[in-house]
């Protein structure tokens, strides 16, 4: 399964283009622009599984830093500030990583 089987390639491109400059990534805006926030909980879970590169059941800091590159390989990495902000916004249980339920809540809220 690929991200483009769930999301439109054009929408992904627009979302990446919106946050090309360092420290401009806003997860809420990104999820909206790429169309993820309008998907079903099952589709959001499928996206999570693609982003969880090591299949640990969590998206850790190291995976999140390359979040944009999972959508488009030539995209930039997230800055440390963006990565920390992204984790803190979703990490409801303060374990330093994002689980599937936390990801779904973040995307669909």
From TrEMBL:
Keywords, comma-separated and alphabetical: Calcium, Metal-binding, Muscle protein, Repeat
Pfam families according to UniProt: EF-hand_7 (PF13499)
Assigned GO CC terms: cytoplasm
Superkingdom of source: Eukaryota
Gene3D superfamilies per UniProt: EF-hand
Domain EF-hand: 39-74
GO molecular function, one term: calcium ion binding
Binding site for Ca(2+) 1: 52, 54, 56, 58, 63
InterPro entries: EF-hand-dom_pair, EF_Hand_1_Ca_BS, EF_hand_dom, Parvalbumin
UniProt function note: In muscle, parvalbumin is thought to be involved in relaxation after contraction. It binds two calcium ions.
Family: Belongs to the parvalbumin family.
Protein name: Parvalbumin
Organism field: Pundamilia nyererei
């Amino acid at each position: 399964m690929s991200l483009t089987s769930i999301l439109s390639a054009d929408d992904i491109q627009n979302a990446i283009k919106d946050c090309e400059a360092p420290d401009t990534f806003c997860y809420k805006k990104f999820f909206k622009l790429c169309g993820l926030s309008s998907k079903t909980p099952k589709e959001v879970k499928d996206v999570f599984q693609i982003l969880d590169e090591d299949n640990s059941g969590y998206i850790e800091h190291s995976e999140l830093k390359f979040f944009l590159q999972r959508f488009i390989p030539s995209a930039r990495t997230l800055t440390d500030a963006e990565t920390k902000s992204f984790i803190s916004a979703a990490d409801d249980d303060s374990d330093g990583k994002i689980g599937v339920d936390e990801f779904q809540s973040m995307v669909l809220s």
